[in-house]
Amino acid sequence: MSEGPTDEKTGIDFTEVDYFINEYSGQNAYEGLLLLKDDSNKDDVGLNYRLANACYILANCSKEWEQRKAYLLEGYGYIKTAYANEPTNTEVLHWAPIITGSLSENCTATKERIQFGHEFKKYIDQAISLLPPEFALLHMRGRFRYEVASLSFVERNLAMLFFGTPPSASYKEALEDLLAAENMDPGAIDNMLYIGKTYHALGDAKNARKWLTKVTKKESCDCVDTEQIEEAHTLLGKLPSPTPEELADDSDCDTAEGIGGEESD
């Protein structure tokens, strides 16, 4: 996503940087942005949300958890600066929930994970209320609803410290968002993985197997994709063996039509 290659306020030309971002070349985008940054434009919204974007790409391409979290924390600082200056900017609204949601998922401490989850909830609600429907927003809310529905009793009580009341969401609500996202942009590894995980949580082994199998047939483009494909393989190994009826069903559709798992061929 981009608002244009040249910032009208500062005159910064982002043409080359946007090319690198669109090519998923995080390191080149990151280095190019740092070369453009100085004391006169360090608070520029376009510069900061692009830096957050570049850090997100670098995090996804990092094998080591510590490095991945470090990039996300750096990106978090950039998107916080952008949000403080222009909280209704379309790109800021897009990247604020992505960065905070990714941080929440990459934190090992429960308290830290819930803190970022609370901030994510604020950003995603604002983005969905102000922006047109899009894949990323529905997918992120679906993932969040899945995680909330999966909270343990202890985690739910701890969340009360930040939310005031325990966050509430169901697997059915998560599935609604994830299937809606799938209809908008079919085939994303992370979305199909969470559809499979949600069906699994709902006790629907047949549809869980269908969506997790789709994930295992995809090719990764970064380290996060690789981990998610591996997770799909692991989850498939935990599912009960398919019934003879399932084995006879050779449908392999790529779109989702409804929560009941009825997909068009």
Helices and strands, with pairings:
Layout (H helix, E strand, L loop, with lengths): L14 H8 L3 H11 L8 H16 L4 H21 L4 H16 L4 H21 L4 H15 L3 H11 L7 H14 L4 H13 L3 H12 L6 H16 L5 H5 L17
Annotation keywords:
microtubule binding; RMD1-3_a_helical_rpt; TPR-like_helical_dom_sf; 13 helices; 265 residues; 68% helix; TPR_REGION domain-containing protein; single chain
Question: How is this structure best described in words?
Answer:
The protein is mainly alpha-helical and 265 residues long. The protein has 13 helices and no strands. The protein is globular, with a radius of gyration of 19 Å. The chain has a domain at 1-131: Serine Threonine Protein Phosphatase 5, Tetratricopeptide repeat (Alpha Horseshoe). It has helices at residues 15-22, 26-36, 45-60, 65-85, 90-105, 110-130, 135-149, 153-163, 171-184, 189-201, 205-216, 223-238, 244-248. It comes from Panagrellus redivivus. It holds the Pfam family RMD1-3.
